[in-house]
Amino acid sequence: MTKPVVDLIIVGSIGIDDIETPAEKREGILGGSVSYACAAASFFSHTGMVGVVGTDFPQEFRDTWSNMNIDLEGLQTVEGGTFRWGGKYHENMDNRDTLFTDLGVFETFSPELPEDYKEAPYLFLGNIHPALQLHVLEQVKDPKFVLIDTMDLWINIAKEDLEKVISKCHMLTLNESEAQLYTGEHSLTQAAKALLELGPEYVLIKKGGNGSMLFTKEDVFLLHAYPLDSFKDPTGAGDTFAGGLMGALCDSGKTDKEAIRQAMVYGSITASFGVEEFSLERLVELDRDQIGIRVAEFKEMCRI
Ligand code: AMP
Predict the structure, then answer these.
(1) Where does the pLDDT of residue 166 fall: very low under 50, low under 70, confident under 90, or very high at 90 and above?
(2) How much is the mean pLDDT over the chain?
(3) Which of 29, 105, 235, 281 has most ligand 1 atoms within 8 Å of CB, for mutation?
């Protein structure tokens, strides 16, 4: 059998963002779930991006991805405007308000995989409408491991579609409030139990700066977040975490629980770099050695 052209496919949104934090305001920067996730995964695996941009999309942003060796064969360019999103963070940087969402070409996005992507063993269904996630999943021939992410919007308006696609995935990732919203359970262990009933073998609950929890029917694994002195922009941290995790898992060639736990460490550490600057600005200058050094430092911090 010939080796697939990419080892990991990631689908999700591509946005041009305006972001305001208490310290700084930035306009027209590269964002979107698939942009963060592919950038993070690119340190560990050969990753293909599946997404859509409009004819207004700057060449400079494409070059950013190409320079990270992200495969862009699955990137569609469609007549019209790229998805745009604006967000403003509160003083505590934990909460934010969406200022505007302009769907542009994202509104009619139909993700079609290039023929040579269909053999890819690892798949990350990033945050888009669950019917589109299912459409992607159905095109991949025999994936070894599929991770799915979602958001409150789809939980509120497309739960049936979401349930259908989640049941076909190996792992589901949500943040704490989404897990509570989905299940109506305040306790995260109760919420995880209910989510595991939907079918996935693993449920990963992200708690922002408070780390993450990996649930299976048998046990739970707790991971701290790397303690940072300061950070500039938490946008896309969850996507960076999940992208790094999938990249590292793909690099290991495995799909078992121990490999997922190790991959979570790489995802989390990659995300800790990502939030140090806006957009992909920190990730573009990062290398695997720097990630390795911080992973070692982190493991030492966690030793009991
Ligand atoms: P996160 O911080 O994980 O919510 O990811 C933020 C990124 O998601 C931003 O770069 C936005 O461009 C993108 N985004 C914002 N709203 C949506 C939406 N409704 N659907 C898909 N992507 C979105």
Answers:
(1) very high
(2) 97
(3) 235
Q: Order across the sheet with 15-20: list the strands.
A: 25-31, 15-20, 84-89, 96-102
Residue of 70, 99, 90 whose CA lies nearest to 243: 70
Which residue do the tokens 């919203």 mark?
181
Query: Cβ(14)–Cβ(37) under 8 Å?
Result: no
Of all helices (H) and strands (E), which one includes residue 184? none
What average pLDDT does the segment 83-101 reach?
95
Left (φ > 0), alpha (ψ -120 to 50) or beta: where does 61 sit? alpha
Using CA atoms, how far apart are residues 118 and 121, in angstroms rounded to an integer? 9
Q: Is the pTM of this model over 0.85?
A: yes
Question: Ligand 1: which atom is nearest the Cα of residue 85?
Answer: 12
Closest CA to 214 of 254, 257, 182, 181: 257
Mean pLDDT of 238-255: 98
